[in-house]
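Researcher: I'd like a candidate sequence for this fold, 330 residues long. If you have to choose between options at a position, lean toward the conservative one.
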């Protein structure tokens, strides 16, 4: 028996076992969530029995199944709420693919069905832990990514459906709550803090971002140029150039970013990569000025504001995580 061949065989068997166990766990979770919804439906159909039936049922279930957890009176009330507020489509497409704790969090923090569905889908796609889901809801990701009037020229400069995907990925504002104003007095300082907290940075940027480098060096026509932050997005299948301006938006900023986008397309991008996208992050912007500035720019560029941790709008401040919370996400 060839040793190397055996090692390869062993690794393939180990991978198969791991994948099968993961599928089994997912199946068990899905069945449990569906059970909770059915129990909730049965409870709702017997509301005329009075509220005390839930306490009685909880005690009797725990007597019958002393080793099984999850059937406290509080949890049974959540099951009734689940069946009352979430339809079968939500059950199958969202809740059945998440933990029960995720579903409870969605019910507790969100009243709008569209938002519950959107956050649930994002949690599934991105593998958000309960803490991350909680954090994204608190910092109003739905409002910033879905509802905000985002400034870009993607529909004109990118083919469909790439333009739609790029527009969906854009946020306004971006919230870098792990950087304080004292740490971010200069663009250089903000970049340093972003790289030092790259896990939190990638979480805020969104799905598919891979960090390629800070002050990324490009040689164009024997001249040296340095890109603030360079990423590759595996979902969009393109490079993303981020330029950071610790200032109010100015029209000349787009010209510099347009050059960097073209340079990355010419010097780095391969034949199977989609066109490079530029993202200009400014301390503040006038949407009208930004839109006019992009009108004759042929490179795909989005313009957004960014906010640092201790200079957030008042509605965000109460949701700031503690240092322990941030460490738990790394």
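Model: Candidate sequence:
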């Amino acid at each position: 028996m060839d040793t190397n061949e055996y090692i390869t065989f062993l690794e393939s068997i180990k991978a198969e076992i791991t994948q099968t166990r993961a599928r089994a766990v997912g199946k068990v979770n899905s069945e449990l969530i569906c059970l909770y919804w059915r129990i909730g439906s049965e409870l709702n159909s017997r509301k005329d029995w009075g509220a005390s039936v839930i306490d009685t049922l909880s005690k009797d279930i725990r007597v019958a199944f002393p080793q099984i957890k999850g059937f406290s009176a509080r949890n049974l009330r959540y099951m009734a709420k689940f069946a009352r507020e979430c339809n079968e489509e939500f059950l199958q497409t969202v809740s059945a693919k998440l933990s029960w704790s995720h579903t409870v969090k969605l019910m507790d923090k969100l009243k709008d069905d569209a938002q519950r569905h959107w956050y649930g889908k994002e949690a599934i796609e991105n593998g958000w832990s309960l803490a991350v889901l909680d954090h994204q809801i608190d910092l109003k990701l739905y409002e910033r990514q879905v509802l905000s009037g985002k400034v870009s020229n993607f529909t004109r400069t990118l083919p469909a459906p790439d333009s739609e995907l790029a527009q969906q990925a854009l946020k306004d504002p971006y919230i870098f709550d792990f950087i304080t104003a004292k740490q971010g007095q200069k663009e250089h300082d903000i970049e340093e803090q972003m790289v030092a907290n790259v896990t939190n940075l990638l979480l805020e940027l969104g799905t598919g971002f891979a960090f390629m480098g800070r002050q990324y060096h490009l040689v164009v026509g024997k001249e040296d140029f340095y890109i603030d932050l360079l990423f590759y997005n595996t979902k969009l299948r393109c490079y993303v150039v981020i330029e950071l301006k610790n200032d109010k938006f100015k029209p000349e900023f787009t010209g510099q970013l347009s050059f960097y986008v073209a340079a990355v397309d010419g010097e780095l991008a391969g034949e199977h990569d989609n066109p490079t996208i530029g993202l200009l992050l400014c301390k503040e912007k006038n949407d009208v000025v930004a839109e006019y500035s992009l009108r004759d720019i042929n490179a795909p560029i989005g313009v957004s504001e960014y906010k640092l941790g201790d200079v957030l709008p008042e509605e965000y401040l109460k949701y700031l995580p503690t240092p322990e919370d941030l460490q738990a996400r790394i």
